[in-house]
Write a structure and sequence with these properties.
5-stranded mixed beta sheet, Maf protein
Length: 185
């Protein structure tokens, strides 16, 4: 699934934009992946110079690793399972903390071929955690085979990060500009 991205950006274009925003601000990112199995990290590291902002990733495919490596609440995992928006948020925050970055990204969901713990194939949660405890979770309902679902999950995670970085930059600009949205003398 290359091309066809909003605004003409393909995967690499979105990843490059993410890295450009991070480098410009002197910030870093880490990724926690489940269903994508390292594909988000692969997209980011495919961009030349990615080491300036990408610290690393944790592929926590097994549910217990989400708790052990990323600090996801064990009771939450027992109650809701790994495919859950709050689990995704905690994964993003956990990788951010574990790898010492300003930003954390996470993916968890069901790529198929069968439903998992009551969740249909294509149910995916992506999350981004940023500075100051800011976090956003996106629930997706994706169609296609396993490969298409994983690819769309990568695309969605990168877009969510790009959008959060842009939004965070606008918020910082507004604060620095006295809240008026323009530069003050």
């Amino acid at each position: 699934m290359s091309g066809g991205e909003t605004g003409g950006e393909d995967h690499l274009g979105v990843a490059a934009r993410v890295l450009e925003l991070l480098v410009a601000r002197g910030e870093t990112v880490a990724v926690a992946e489940s269903l994508t199995g390292g594909l988000v990290a692969a997209e980011i590291t495919a961009v030349p110079g990615s080491s300036r902002a990408f610290r690393g990733s944790v592929t926590a495919y097994a549910t217990e690793l989400k708790q052990e490596l990323l600090g996801v609440d064990g009771d939450l995992l027992a109650e809701r399972g790994a495919v859950d928006g709050e689990v995704a948020r905690q994964m993003a925050e956990g990788v951010r903390t574990a790898l010492g970055t300003e930003w954390g990204v996470a993916t968890t969901g069901v790529a198929g071929p069968e439903a998992q713990h009551g969740h249909a194939v294509g149910t995916v949660f992506t999350a981004v955690a940023g500075p100051g405890g800011a976090a956003v979770v996106q629930e997706l309902s994706l169609d296609g085979d396993r490969g298409a679902i994983r690819t769309a999950s990568v695309r969605s995670a990168l877009r969510l990060l790009r959008d959060q970085l842009a939004q965070h930059a606008r918020a910082q600009d507004t604060e620095q500009d006295g809240g008026k949205g323009c530069l003050q003398p």
